[in-house]
Specification:
Layout (H helix, E strand, L loop, with lengths): L1 E5 L7 H8 L5 E5 L2 H10 L6 E4 L4 E3 L3 H25 L4 E5 L6 E3 L5 E5 L2 E5 L9 E2 L1 H9 L3 E5 L2 E3 L4 E2 L3 H12 L3 E6 L17 E2 L4 H7 L4 H14 L4 E6 L5 H6 L4 E3 L1
Helix pairs in contact: 2-3, 5-7, 6-7
Length: 264
């Protein structure tokens, strides 16, 4: 059993990824859709707004209208696109969000502490949160009966409000809850790079106690959240986290066989 997260950035080859993934059994797929969301939201006159926390992590500001567009892209276009491709490849996939069956549940953040123009600020009204519970019973019901879950944010709060949650950390919590041995996070870069502009500067191995230092020294943008997700997965009992690219043929298999960044 493993959990694989496929990102939503520009440049990912979803056809090649699904053909490769279909060679495996007993997995859960988590996906994003950030590039497509940005494109569609902009066309609808609601371009994405990003905020930076006081700890240096970047996330998307999510008000109610943004969340509705988020659902349209993630739960609609991206989720069903992947389910369709998996079905064509012979995988009996079922597409769900974290809201369905309360698969992903946790508290909504009351307020965010952010940095804006170099100053600390309290931001309210953001529909985001964190995951504290995973409906393992429902996921196992699907897996035990031959269905492959294809999951995406949003999650649901304890007050039954849809909340935006980070996809990488979402995958980490699912891996922990299912007792998965491996978490694979694929994106449009080959792993953690010492120099983001140089794909040959790949860092191939990181120890658990080095993660915080690597977040501060090398990780930029979304990669910070991927390393944070890796840390949470390992702390929850997952044995290995693999970061790899998804722009080439057999990218998943290559990552499982040692390409990319290995964290254990």
């Amino acid at each position: 059993m493993f959990v694989v997260k496929i990102g939503g950035s520009k440049g990912i080859d979803y056809d090649a990824f699904v053909r490769d993934l279909a060679n495996y059994r007993s997995f859960v797929l988590v996906h994003g859709g950030s590039h497509e969301l940005g494109e569609i939201a902009t066309k609808l006159g609601r371009p994405p707004v990003f905020i930076t926390s006081v700890s240096g992590f970047t996330s998307r500001y999510t008000d109610r209208e943004t969340l509705e567009i988020f659902n349209m892209v993630y739960a609609g276009k991206m989720n069903k696109m992947l389910v369709e491709k998996l079905q064509k490849a012979g995988v009996n996939a079922v597409g769900l969000t974290g809201i369905d069956g309360r698969i992903l549940e946790g508290p909504q953040k009351e307020a965010l502490k952010i940095i804006e123009n170099g100053k600390k600020k309290i931001l309210r009204g953001d529909l985001s949160g964190t995951i504290e519970r995973v409906n393992v019973k429902l996921l196992c019901l699907l897996l035990d009966n031959g269905y492959t879950p294809v999951l995406t944010p949003p999650a649901i709060s304890y007050e039954s409000v849809a909340i935006n949650v980070d996809g990488d950390r979402c995958a980490a919590q699912i891996a922990v809850a299912l007792g998965a041995e491996r978490l694979v996070i694929l994106s449009n870069v080959p792993g953690l790079l010492r120099n983001p502009d140089d794909p040959t500067s790949l860092i191939t191995k990181i120890a658990r106690d080095e993660i915080d230092a690597f977040i501060q020294t090398y990780a930029q943008g979304r990669m910070k959240k991927k390393l944070l997700a890796a840390k949470e997965a390992l702390d929850g009992g997952v044995k290995q986290v693999l970061l790899g690219g998804a722009r080439t043929k057999a990218s998943l298999t290559q990552t499982l066989n040692g390409a990319g960044t290995r964290i254990e």
